[in-house]
Structure formats: C-alpha cells, structure tokens
Amino acid sequence: SSAASEVAKRLRVTIARALIRKPHLLIWDGSLSALDLQTDWDLRQAVARDLDSAMISISQRVRSMQQAKEILVLDSGRLVGKGTHEALLLSSSEYQAIVASQEEEHD
Fold first, then answer.
1. Are 47 and 19 a contacting pair, CB within 8 Å?
2. pTM confidence score
3. In sequence order, what are the residues at sequence separation of 6 or more whose Cβ sits closer than 8 angstroms to the Cβ of residue 82?
4. Which tens digits make up the pLDDT trace of 76-105?
C-alpha cells in the first residue's frame, strides 16, 4: 500500500540521517521490523563493516538477531537467557520456543 511505502521511505531517511552522523552507539529498536529481512540484514552488515559503532538491537525477529555477538532474552522484563544464537538454541527453552514459533510462521 502507499501508506506502508511512505512509512518505509521515512524510515530509510531517518536511518540515513543517523548514519551520516557516524555515532559511537546505534540503538536499533523495533522500527527495523518495517524493513524486509534482506534490507534489515544488508543494513546491519553495512553498519558493522563501515562504521566503528557499537550496536544495540531490540527485536522480536530471530532472523534479525542470529549474527549478534550476544543476545539477551527477556520474558516480562526478566532476563531468562544470554548468549549467541547457537548457544541459546541449546540452553534456553524460552529462546527455543520463540524460534519455533517464528519458523512456523514462515512454513
């Protein structure tokens, strides 16, 4: 729809403005979920490659977070898991449940 297209356009402009400033810390919130998975991935890779910025990402999309150095899993504001994607798949039942629910959505 044209409304979704306008939102995506404004989001890209906002991201571009933030990146031009070359911040020391980038905080990505749920707004990146408005991007398709490939654009989200490309953006995160470009920032990691081209900027010397620490990144904190807040996301409910596992696919967006799989390459993170460390993932914190929260349940009702309580920390219930911490580690890489691979480590959490082995150690956190909450993370396993999130992954399983998202895999079902994509099947």
1. yes
2. 0.73
3. 70, 71, 72, 73, 88
4. 999 999 999 999 999 999 999 999 998 876
